Amino acid sequence: MAVEVPVRLALVGLGAIGLAAHLPAMLRSEAVQVVGLADPSPERRAAAAPRAPGAAVYADAAEVCGAAGVDGVVLATPPWVTTGLAEQFLRAGQFVLAEKPIAVSTADARKLATLPDERQRRLQVGLTYRHDPALARLREWIRDGPLHGPLLIRAHIYDERLNAKDPDHSARIRQTLRHGPPVLHEGAHVFDWLAFLLDGASPRVSDAWSVRSDPGLASPNLNGARLTYRCGTNVLVEFGWLTSELPRCELSILGQHGYAVLDGFTFRLTLTADGETKVYDDPVDRTERCFDRQLGAFVDLVRGRSDRAVPGLPEGLAALDLSERIAATASMFTIPGRERT
Ligand SMILES: NC(=O)c1ccc[n+]([C@@H]2O[C@H](COP(=O)([O-])OP(=O)(O)OC[C@H]3O[C@@H](n4cnc5c(N)ncnc54)[C@H](O)[C@@H]3O)[C@@H](O)[C@H]2O)c1
After folding, report:
1. Share of the chain above pLDDT 90, in %
2. Of 103, 142, 160, 234, which has fewest CB within 10 angstroms of its CB?
3. CA nearest ligand 1 atom 15, residue
4. Are residues 248 and 298 in the same domain?
5. Distance from Cα 253 to the centre of ligand 1, integer Å
């Protein structure tokens, strides 16, 4: 069998997730050659460069845009930067795997939605955890039993603990809050899981709330909502950042004949049905298995094995739209055209 030539990818954004998850996945993959690294920060470039010898290193992502020998880019940049970069790379004809959320508002995302269809199809959105087998298993239980609907789903997503010993982390999360509350940033993942589990159904936002536990924060750091689906399923979502202590982080699904709990950090899955509890635990670390699968899907896209990226722009926009509707209902963040009605 002929050996396939690796796809040539550059990593743009060498921050926390770029260096902790994307670069390791790219280096693990035999299907990928890391040809470029870009970040305006000299410290970030210095941290990344020795890990990918042979990759060209750039201070300005524009140098990678349209460059010969770069089939695609992974954008691990803040969301207020990602949208514009994704647009430039797609216009240049390159493939893009862009971190979530794809934008900080649907208004901002419009620049992507108006690109020609053929370019939009080259965009994969980093809704990383939808690639996890645990979600596929949950979907199967919802479709075929024992978790038949209507369901009560509770998604309690509490992470980014306030840690006095890690001021860089606090500064990064505080900066992120300037561009929207946790429901906008974490909601991207959770609303994509819900869309995946509930076959793309779109809910009504029946109620939403927000709390700013530290008055110095730019957005409320605790947010929640009640979502109602046509099928009778109700979802209670909560998101929380930057408190010294955090409640449990998990997704639970209760139906007439079963109860499932997905651990928010490890994706360890338990199902209780017919009086018996079964545990499904993947031995491979969640970050590693999800980033590897996500990258595998992107390689297939670049190689032309898939016609469009999944999750792509439609999935990224759907999650963003729901996040915005919740934020507007709770009036936690003023979004143009999305003020409380
Ligand atoms: N998929 C996931 O599981 C997951 C997990 C964590 C974070 N994220 C997302 O990843 C993104 C980045 O998060 P992070 O925590 O790594 O942030 P970070 O601030 O640690 O890293 C962002 C990096 O992008 C760089 N950057 C900024 N502007 C740039 C530009 N124009 N060109 C090139 N580089 C630029 C910054 O210098 C920084 O090094 C966010 O959108 C976040 O929501 C996703």
Report:
1. 94
2. 234
3. 16
4. no
5. 31
How close is the Cα of 17 to the center of ligand 1, in Å?
Answer: 6
Question: Residue 159: exposed, middle, or buried by beta-carbon count in 10 A (0-12, 13-18, 19+)?
Answer: middle
Given pLDDT bands bounded at 50, 70 and 90, which one contains residue 144?
very high
Give CA–CA dist 214/194, Å, rounded.
Answer: 30
Q: b vs e for 246-275, b when ≥16 Cβ sit within 10 Å of the residue's Cβ?
A: beebbbbbebeebbbbbbbeebbbebebee
Q: Could you identify the atom of ligand 1 that is nearest to the CA of residue 12?
A: 33
**Which residue range is the domain that position 34 belongs to?**
7-129+289-310
Pocket of ligand 1 (CB under 6 A): 12-18, 38-41, 44, 61, 76-79, 81, 99-100, 126, 128, 172, 185
Does residue 187 have a pLDDT over 80?
Answer: yes
Q: Are residues 238 and 103 in the same domain?
A: no
pLDDT digits (tens, 9 = 90+) for 271-311: 999 999 999 999 999 999 999 999 999 999 999 999 999 99
The number of folded domains in the chain is 2
Tell me, what CATH number does 142's domain have? Answer: 3.30.360.10
The protein residue whose alpha carbon is closest to atom 5 in ligand 1 is 17
- 240 in Cβ contact with 222 (< 8 Å): yes
Q: Give residue for tokens 């992107």.
A: 298
Mean pLDDT of the chain: 95
Shared-domain flag, residues 112 and 147: no
| Atom 18 of ligand 1: nearest residue by CA position | 15
CATH number of the domain bearing residue 11: 3.40.50.720
Tokens of 139: 């979907």
Q: Does residue 339 carry a pLDDT above 50?
A: no
With 60 as the cut, is the pLDDT of residue 337 above it? no
Q: For residues 246 and 174, state if they share a domain.
A: yes
Indicate which atom in ligand 1 lies nearest the CA of residue 126.
1
Q: To which residue do tokens 């479709």 refer?
A: 143
Distance 232 CA to ligand 1 centre (A): 37
Report the pLDDT value the prediction gives residue 341, as an integer from 0 to 100.
Answer: 34
Q: Which of 88, 99, 190 to mutate to test the pocket of ligand 1 (most atoms within 8 A of CB)?
A: 99
